[in-house]
Amino acid sequence: MISKLSKYETTFVVDSLQKSENKEHIVTKVENFIKNNGGKIGEVEDWGKKRLAYEINRKQYGNYYQIHFEGPGNLPGLLEREYRLEEGILRFLTITSDPRAVLKREEAAKLAKETTEAEVIPEETKTEETKTEETKTEETKTEETKTEETKTEETKT
Fold it and tell me: Which pTM was predicted?
């Protein structure tokens, strides 16, 4: 029996007072839990340290992480149980990913990549254009000098 894997996003907040090794251990533990329960990890995002909207367990800051993954229908429930058992995790939320949002995110990533590539190419052309403009400026200056010399000669005669 083959079950279809659904796409999910899970976001969790880790206590910012934890050591960085411990934070990495928690993220790795969550990733391994997803893999061991039939899930496939997509993208893992570290949003960094942010101020919490309100204090949680007398903490004002937390490190935010988001993991995109595919998994069977029972995986979010198991994952939330695992979150509750982990003391370093302050808050968590797991939702089903909207396929349209996933497509928009992929398109935005492609567009950003193309934009970055397009920005690199004009810089090369700009240097060529600058050289051409410098040459034109020099030619204009010599023409202006010749014109001034001609005017000076005409006034002398």
Answer: 0.62
